[in-house]
Amino acid sequence: MNIYGPGLRAMAAASRSLANSKGVSEEGRPARIFVVDDEEFVREVYRDVFESKGHTVFGAGSGEEALEVFRTMRHPPDLVIMDHRMPGKDGIETTKDLLRLEPGLPIIFSSADESVRETAIRAGAISFWTKPFPIALLVDAMNDILDAKKRR
Fold first, then answer.
1. Structural domain count of the chain
2. How far apart are CA 43 and CA 118, in angstroms?
3. Residue 41 belongs to domain spanning
4. Distance between CA atoms of 83 and 62, rounded to whole angstroms?
5. How confident is the model at residue 28 (pLDDT cuts 50, 70, 90)?
6. Burial code of 75-110, b = ≥16 C-beta within 10 A, e = fewer?
7. Helices 91-101, 63-72: crossing angle, 10 deg rounding
8. Residue 119: which region, alpha, beta or left (left: phi > 0; alpha: psi -120 to 50)?
9. Can you give the CATH number for the domain in which 138 is found?
10. Residue 6 counted as domain residue
11. What is the chain's mean pLDDT, rounded?
């Protein structure tokens, strides 16, 4: 699955309310979202938005912590939102490591550093989003990813 930008549906999300978003996984359960970002504020914003939709959100503040948390998960997440610049292992290496553990894991790479776009996609990210971006677009992208998983 390759989603190199927000897509038409996600772009339309900018003009409608987050309340229209349902977002359940292919099993009909709330989505499991894993946010890997060294900024606690960013993790909390994502957690607040996604949990308000009934989803389960996991968080990690570094690449090393992300791998530790991932290994403790009973089921892999439906989506990973990955930052680039973090202490220790960066987002590119963490993306590669997570995909070695769970091939096909959908990872949206999110960074203010546009110069790593191609490297992130080559590492296995399904999409690259330049920070900052409207979180409504991310919610819709998550729904698109879950819909695509249902169709497989």
1. 1
2. 24
3. 31-143
4. 9
5. low
6. ebbbbbbbbbebeebbbbebbebbbeeeeebbbbbb
7. 20
8. alpha
9. 3.40.50.2300
10. no
11. 83
pLDDT in tens, 58-115: 999 999 999 999 999 999 999 999 999 999 999 999 999 999 999 999 999 999 999 9
Per-residue pLDDT, 4: 37
> Could you give the CA distance from residue 60 to residue 124 in angstroms, rounded to a whole number?
19
**Going by C-beta distance under 8 Å and a sequence separation of 6 or more, which residues neighbour residue 107?**
79, 80, 81, 82, 95, 98, 99, 124, 125, 126
Tell me whether residue 15 is in a domain: no
Q: Measure the CA–CA gap between 76 and 115, rounded to whole angstroms.
A: 29
Residue 67's pLDDT is 98
**Pairing assessment for the beta strands 127-130 and 107-111 based on DSSP bridges:** parallel
Question: Is residue 14 one of the residues assigned to a domain?
Answer: no
Side-by-side strand order, sheet with 107-111: 56-60, 32-36, 79-83, 107-111, 127-130
In a domain, 21, yes or no: no
Q: What CA–CA distance (Å, rounded) separates 139 from 21?
A: 7
Q: Which residue in 113, 47, 115, 53 sits closest to 81, CA to CA?
A: 47
